[in-house]
Amino acid sequence: MGIPIEPEIKKGVELARLHKRLRRDDSETITELHVSHAKSLAGLANFPDLEILILAGCDPVAPKTLPDLGRLLSLRIHDSGLRDIEGMDKFPGLRILSLPRNRIQDVSPLLNCNLASLEITGNPLSQDSYEMVLPELMRRGCNVSRSQEREWRASLRIREANIPLSCYRNNGRYYLCSPGLEITGSPDTDHPEIRIDEVEDLLDRDPNVLLELFRQRGGVWHPPNP
Predict the structure, then answer these.
(1) In terms of Cα–Cα distance, which of 133, 130, 127 is closest to 110?
(2) Which of 13, 46, 74, 131 can pair with 2 through a Cys bridge, CB separation 3.0 to 4.6 Å?
(3) Chain centroid to CA 218
(4) Rounded distance between C-alpha atoms, residue 169 and residue 177, angstroms
């Protein structure tokens, strides 16, 4: 009997099977799976043939909570509560890793991986990770997409102020996001635009105002139940 499946994973599996039917693929093997807003990763071990896995707005999530997916080639975890990436080398074939807009500080575990591509934008990386580890990965031939220094420093300062937000840049504009399910059930949507100098000014004066600004400008923000 398979492991009980988290409801959001079950939804992702149903969608994957629908796509297979539309392609006239009658096999039962699931090789690509997209999961959104899952509160656990229970049941992923039922799909050992996964080659592509996408987790959007999931929390909690960490390599140690993922099963040993020996065929995994591409992993994307975005807008999630991912903090600890220790053990990412458990996926021997992993070549493409995309981790934008999480809560990652330490990327040194990736030195044990054999990555061809890494996306790590929108994370409050430590100074050592940003200035030492990422350049080392690039030196080894990994194509690294990282935040520019200004938004990286803003996200780092937001994290140091214990505010559950991050700042990131897209197409020349800056946005606030709230990775994980701590304050919103849809962390991968509704990211309000903000000027980077506005972020820096609020960090100098009162970082807590950023949460109210996030709500005022359309961010989905509902304080957790007491």
Answers:
(1) 133
(2) 46
(3) 21
(4) 11
Cα atoms in the 13 Å half-sphere on the side-chain side of 12: 26
Quote the CA–CA distance of 207 and 200 in Å, as a whole number: 9
**Cα radius of gyration rounded to whole Å, the chain:** 18
Residue keyed to tokens 């929390």? 59
Per the DSSP assignment, residues forming a β-bridge with 35 are: 55
CA–CA distance from 222 to each of 38, 56, 178, 189, 194 (Å)?
A: 18, 19, 11, 14, 20
Instruction: Give pTM, 2 decimals.
Output: 0.94
Question: Chain centroid to CA 169: how far?
Answer: 15
Start-to-end CA span in the chain (Å): 37
Taking residue 225's Cβ as centre, other Cβ atoms within 10 Å add up to: 4
| C-beta contacts of 151-157 below 8 A and 24+ residues apart | 151/122, 151/196, 152/125, 154/196, 154/199, 154/200, 154/203, 155/122, 155/123, 155/124, 155/125, 156/124, 156/125, 156/126, 156/127, 157/203, 157/207
Length of the chain: 226
Instruction: Identify the CA nearest to 91 among candidates 137, 134, 52.
Output: 52
Q: Residue type at 154?
A: A
Handedness of CA 217, 180, 93, 147 (dihedral sign): positive
Q: Which residues pair with 76 in a beta bridge?
A: 54, 98
Q: State how far the Cα of 218 lies from the Cα of 214, in Å rounded to an integer.
A: 7
**Residue 109 to residue 130: CA distance in whole angstroms:** 13
